[in-house]
Amino acid sequence: MIDVLVIGGGNAALCAALMAREAGASVLLLEAAPRAWRGGNSQHTRNLRCMHDAPQDVLVDAYPEEEFWQDLLKVTGGLTNEKLARLVIRASSNCRGWMRRHGVHFQPSLSGALHTARTNAFFMGGGKALVNAYYRSAEKLGVEIRYDSPVARVEVKGGRFIAAHIGEREVDGRRLPAERLEARTCVLAAGGFESNREWLREAWGQNERGEWPAENFLVRGTRFNNGVLLRELMGQGADTIGDPTQAHMVAIDARAPLYDGGICTRIDCVSLGVVVNRNGERFYDEGEDFWPKRYAIWGRLVAQQPGQVGFSIIDQKALGRFMPPVFPGTTANTLDELARQLGLPEATFVATVEAYNRACRVGTFDHTSLDDCHTEGIQPAKTHWARPLDSPPYYGYPLRPGVTFTYLGLRTDETATVHFDGKPSPNLFVAGEMMAGNVLGKGYTAGVGMSIGTAFGRIAGTRAAMAAGYRTTSRENEHDCATA
To answer: Is the Cβ–Cβ distance between 310 and 304 less than 8 Å?
Structure first.
């Protein structure tokens, strides 16, 4: 019998599999996706938010625990478990040595990735390179890996994991039979339900305009995160946490594909101009805070607008100050012409931009600080980086909500254990997006999802190995056990 069964194939699952195997346990990892699409949402990531008290190779200056915690507290509005959040923060300070030993390489913050040189360690080659490095290491260590293996249900009796069931499926033209896989322990790391269109529609419902907002959502990440195991565990009485409408949701290019658009579909010029809805009206402060702390609120903001669409508008002055998007913007030499090309009501759009221009109080523009360029006399205000849009050509980018991962998940504690009616399971653990809602009640700050997945993946793998009868053998395992 397998000691540790890991269900999932992204960062958290791989961290769990590696830690369990390092402790001596036999490990089987089940990835729902084909090999070419392995890695879940992690393949679309690019960095890890890291606490550090002094400069560390690719990280400059310092990013101490309290500042990390305050950043997280601000974006979540207090909807976070402080104990678990601080566990993640502290774990982020000492995981990179272990990651390097498993083949992950780091590089300095990318040019155009604003304000992250101090807070985020970037993966050389991005998330796909990280995922590939972990898979190579897992294979070398003897982790058994099976692709095209979506788990349809799990057997749980009295809170104890018994077995996982894989249904019949077709792979490369071959019909594979259903399977039942027993294991001494299990780690659930199969992601949220963002690619389950029906569940998103159910969660978001119908708005006051008679629209079903979720029908217009795009999915930035993997098409394989459909929430089957999350709903399965909920049906078996597992304790849950989180609001099903809360998610890491970004305003992305409306021309992006339905699935797997990734980071390159993000529009990063919001703070350098204005954003209007399809009625040609502004609806939120574009300069509220630094972009890495606010980019993830814009998906939800756009989701609340008519038709779930918005438009990011800049002029020539903004060029070169943000990461260029994958699709070119619509370009025009006049505001009227831009409105016509974007399908916006010309008079309203022009009046909106002109009112904004008149309200701008330009001081010393500095996009690397919370500068004194702001508006007066209009609502919503723009509190920083407010400069008139008066230098043609003008550029417009259509926006739609892009869901990265959902926050409804399984409630856990510092041991990464799944709970049933408040009682911890003796052998069922959870990591990654399936439990991120314990730390992220709402909001997001760049790189923290990978921090959560890495911390809890390592803890879950260590605990699963211990539950299977293995003691820790490495400093990393010992550290995580002590932390937990």
So the answer is: no
Segments in 35-125 forming alpha helices (H): 65-76, 82-91, 96-101
CA distances from 164 to 5, 12, 226, 462 (A): 9, 19, 17, 20
- Does the pLDDT at position 423 exceed 90? yes
Which ranges constitute the DSSP H helices of 195-265? 197-204, 228-235
State the DSSP string of 293-334: HHGGGHHHHHHTSGGG-EEEEEEGGGTTSSPPPSSPPEEESS
Give pLDDT, residue 473.
53
**Hey, what are 76's tokens?**
């979540």
Query: Whose CA is closest to 279, among 314, 313, 251, 306?
Result: 306
49 and 151 belong to one structural domain: yes
The vertex-395 CA angle with 390 and 401, nearest 5°, equals: 125
Its domain, for residue 104, covers: 2-192+227-242+407-483
Q: Do residues 329 and 339 touch, judged by C-beta distance below 8 A?
A: no
More confident site: 324 or 97: 97
Q: How confident is the model at residue 450 (pLDDT cuts 50, 70, 90)?
A: very high
**Does the pLDDT at position 483 exceed 50?**
no
Same domain for 235 and 109: yes
- At residue 479 the predicted structure's pLDDT band, cuts being 50, 70 and 90, is very low
Tell me how far CA of residue 320 lies from CA of 33, 323, 337, in angstroms.
37, 8, 23
Residue 440 clears pLDDT 90, i.e. is over it:
yes
pTM of the full structure: 0.93
Phi-psi region of 225 (alpha: psi -120 to 50; beta: other; left: phi over 0): beta
Residue the block writes with tokens 């700050």: 445
Query: Within the chain, how many helices (H) and strands (E) appear?
Result: 13, 23
Q: Do residues 394 and 418 share a domain?
A: no
Average pLDDT over residues 221-233: 96
Q: Which residues contact 394 (CB under 8 A, 6 or more apart)?
A: 313, 314, 315, 316, 331, 332, 333, 334, 335, 338
Mean pLDDT over the full length of the chain: 94
pLDDT (0 to 100) of residue 35: 96
Residue 417 lies in a domain: yes
Q: Which among 344, 377, 402 is the end of a domain? A: 402
265 and 168 in a common domain: no
Q: Is residue 295 part of a domain?
A: yes
pLDDT for position 53? 96
